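Revision sheet: structure tokens.
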Amino acid sequence: MKAVILAGGYGTRMSEVTNSIPKPMVEIGGKPILWHIMNIYSHYGVNEFIICGGYKQYVIKEYFFNYLYHNSDLTIDLANGDIKVINNDMPEWKVTIVDTGLDTMTGGRIKRIQEYVGDESFFLTYGDGVSDVDISQSYNKHIESGKVLSMMAFQPAGKLGVLDISDDSSLRGFKEKPDSDGTWINAGFFVCESGIFDYLDVNSGMFEAEVMQDMIKNGEVNAFKHSGFWMPMDTLNDNTVLNKLWDEGKAWWKKW
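Predicted:
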């Protein structure tokens, strides 16, 4: 299976750093958060990635194009230009980076990578959040549900988008930024069937609202509850917290 990562947004709430790089390239422990997300999936044997680029997507392309040199010791013969890689402990990743448009909404970005997914089931997540979610277990729960889409639900302390989950784990409703708190929210780790593309076109709006609402009406969305660690990196303060967790050896998402 492949993992699709949404990495094309402007990251305006972190404009102090995203004026020069896309948010998925903001670092935690010296590595882009995108690298951390990919390692979460790779730990469970998912090594094929489709990255939905947009804003400054060339930065992501250059990072992976030069990944070997960025992450290896080198001997460079300046006289003839020969380069010898001393250690080559590279991950077995196949990375497809697609320019899905500068101002495309998340629904449209997913539609634009359909040809790279085909008729297979696939994982989907955002390029700015980490979790200790068990990817294999999430897939098993998705298969058991028989739905087109499964999402990870999380219960935070703050006020975010609320999910209304029935006793059989079907999703009955979705509401952004409600007045109440202490309820389950969309945590952005999904498992999808190719049938999801029937709800999308290249001009689709926000996947999390417009598209998902249509799927909910048709009873095609399942929620699997996660009570472990999850944290999105929405602001510079979030980035500081994640770096602190990494530095203190408390990066709960690090299973590799």
